[in-house]
Every structure is written in C-alpha cells, then in structure tokens.
Amino acid sequence: MKFAAQTSPRARNRDDNLIPLINVVFLMLIFFMVAGKISRSDAIAIDPPASTSETTSRSEEPINILLSATGVIYMDDMELESEQLTHAVTTALDNSQDPQALSILLKVDAATPVDTLLQTLAQIKAAGMLKVSLATRMAGHPA
Question: Does residue 122 surpass a pLDDT of 60?
C-alpha cells in the first residue's frame, strides 16, 4: 500500500486579510476625491436674496462680510459689533498690499431689513472701501 506524500496546508499569512481592506480604503479615497468638493463654509447660514443678473468671476480674493437677518455681522468668520465694522474695514485696507485691488463680498440674508443693509453699506463706504459686491442667488433656484 502506497501512501501519497501528505502535504501540509500552506500556513496562511496574517496579511492576506489586510489586502481587501486596503483596496476598499483606496477606492473610498478616490471616490471622495472625485465626488467631494472642499470649500470654506460661512460662519452663519445665509439665505441670499434672488437675483436675475448674471454672475461675474472675481480674480482677487475679497473680504467676506456676512449680515444675518437679525443684524449680526461677521467679517472673515469673526463676529463684529455694528460699530466695529468701519474700523475693521479700515484696518483691512491699511494692511493690504494693494488697497485699490481689495474688494468686499457682502452676503446678506434675504430676510434682513433694508435699513440694516443700508446702514452696513454706509459703514463700509465710511471706511473708504469703494468695491462692494452683493452676493445673491439666481431667481428660481434654491439656496
């Protein structure tokens, strides 16, 4: 009677179970790189008013000012009192390398009273800023 040489089963490598996990992680990484968009979010949620005008592209990075419906003001993610806005814009102009190229992007909630908006625009003008853009959304499109 002849017995065949019995081979011992190959000892499994502990890393064999790690390879599918690495594949899944890399696939998820590629998915989020393609599907995701990293953008800076605003300090407070703003629902901009509707507009029928076309959007324009900006070459320089503007100063972002947010004005909520309750009158709370944020300048570059820092909350300001209404009286501090003129001083903050003046300081930004003084610290700028090219004050002529500096501009402001004003994001106002659609529920903000017009008087509050006009007061804010007057403070920005008093600081010496001449380039102010009002952020809006296309009419008929949700925010």
Answer: yes
CA atoms within 13 A on the CB side of 128: 13
Strands 73-75 and 63-67, sheet pairing:
antiparallel
Tokens 């790189």 sit on residue: 33
Q: What is the C-alpha separation between 95 and 92, in angstroms, rounded?
A: 5
Most confident of 7-11, 46-50, 121-125, 133-137: 121-125
Rama region for 6: left / alpha / beta (φ>0; ψ in -120 to 50; rest): beta
Q: What is the DSSP string of 59-72?
A: SSPPEEEEE-TT--
Q: Three-class SS of residue 134?
A: strand
Mean pLDDT for the chain? Answer: 81
- Residue-wise pLDDT for 49-90, tens only, equals 777 666 555 556 788 999 988 889 999 888 998 889 999 999
Question: Which amino acid is residue 30, in one-letter code?
Answer: I
